[in-house]
Write a structure and sequence with these properties.
Blueprint: E1 18-22, H1 27-39, E2 44-49, E3 69-73, H2 79-89, E4 93-96, H3 103-108, H4 110-130, E5 135-141, H5 164-183, E6 187-192, E7 194-196, H6 205-214, E8 219-222, E9 228-233, H7 234-247, E10 253-256, E11 261-263, H8 264-275, H9 281-286, E12 288-291, H10 306-309, H11 319-333, E13 353-354, E14 357-358
Parallel strand pairs: 1-2, 1-4, 2-3, 4-5, 5-6, 6-10, 7-9, 8-12
Antiparallel strand pairs: 9-11, 13-14
């Protein structure tokens, strides 16, 4: 198939730098694209997304008419397509967000995670290397460290992933970093804490709990809910990626974290308090249901971000402000995805689960 048939420019428009954002119709990447378009009006921001179930171009409706924005539908796992894309679009910088990310789903669909997160990353970084891209930022996760309740992880801490999703991200990191070690190809790896905010598909804990409560349904907590997570607001994370883009050093890893932490049980109570407008402990518990836990559920991911702080980034949006904005957004945007209602089940639909219980 020819480049024009794929919707690729044979003669690229006269912009400055050309930035490729993979998975740009997804949650975090859509916020990053919006920030990039504002910060760099002379650069062309190319959104590459295959439009999987958790992606929505409605996330980018506010910027879709910008002259320096371009959407291309395509799959990072398609080697021929990726070669054509880099050959025709003349990409300078890659920000690689495209991935399968739902931990619960990774237990029942691990081959899909291996294909997208490992093989897809290998195809992408190889194509970028062959095209002499100036910078390649690979987006990973704090989950590659494995769980801890005492030790605070820094960028040199060993990786010890405990679920198929985290394993696939750890392997993809190794693939990307091998291009630095072997060829000095300018790659950077980032590992972030849990991110929340508008645009997130409601299979993740915060939008799921919000949507359930807004439909007068109970929050479904896996196990006891004592597992704690650090939560960062989406625009803060987007600013972190722009800081790394501008100041990050090739071959380095950067943690993107926060000191703000809630257990899943505390999170559920906080959302009940805000959405149902009650502070009564007995009423709070009426909106919470406990289901069986998933096979592996790390207790916490304490992480130091001092290295990124030295580049000038700090989170700015306080929890109270960020969560209220998020709740308000889901009141009118829940149906940005055609199958959003299906995401509210306690577990992904698969042969491993029946009636919300793990077999």
């Amino acid at each position: 198939m020819s480049a024009s048939a794929w919707g690729l420019d044979v003669a690229p428009a006269p912009f400055g730098k050309r930035l490729l954002v993979t998975g740009g119709a997804g949650f975090i990447a859509s916020h990053v694209i919006i920030c990039l378009l504002e910060r760099y009006p002379d650069c062309l921001i190319i959104n590459l997304d295959k439009l999987d179930y958790c992606a929505s171009l409605k996330n980018l409706k506010s910027v879709s008419s910008r002259k320096n924005y371009k959407f291309i539908q395509g799959d990072i796992c398609d080697e021929h397509f990726m070669k054509l894309l880099f050959g025709t679009e003349k990409i300078h910088i890659v920000l690689h967000f495209a991935a399968q990310t739902h931990v619960d789903k990774s237990f029942c669909c691990s081959s899909e995670f291996k294909n997208v997160n490992i093989y897809g990353t290998e195809v992408l970084v190889k194509a970028a290397y062959q095209a002499n891209v100036e910078k390649f930022i690979h987006v990973s996760t704090d989950e590659v460290y494995g769980g801890s309740i005492k030790e605070e992880f820094n960028e040199t801490s060993p990786r010890c992933p405990t679920n198929p999703y985290a394993v696939s991200k750890a392997v993809s990191e190794c693939i990307v970093m091998s291009y630095w070690e072997n060829y000095r190809f300018p790659v950077i790896v980032t590992r972030s804490s849990n991110v929340y905010g508008p645009h997130q598909y409601p299979d993740k804990v915060i939008p799921k709990f919000i949507a359930l409560l807004q439909r007068n349904r109970k929050c479904c907590i896996h196990g006891t809910g004592i597992q704690a997570r650090h939560f960062l607001y989406a625009t803060d994370v987007a600013e972190a990626f722009l800081t790394i883009l501008e100041k990050g050093e090739p071959g380095e890893v950067y943690n993107v974290g926060t000191n703000f932490e809630l257990s899943v049980f505390q999170l559920a109570k906080e959302l009940v308090r805000l959405i149902k407008e009650t502070a009564s402990e007995s009423e709070l518990k009426l909106w919470i249901d406990h289901v069986s836990d998933r096979p592996s559920n790390d207790l916490a991911y304490p992480m130091s971000s001092k290295k990124l702080h030295r580049l000038g980034w700090e989170p700015k949006v306080p929890w109270e402000e960020g969560i209220r904005k998020t709740i308000k957004w889901y009141e009118t945007n829940f149906h940005n995805w055609s199958d959003a209602e299906n995401a509210l089940a306690p577990f992904p639909s698969s042969p491993l689960h029946e009636g919300g219980q793990q077999l």
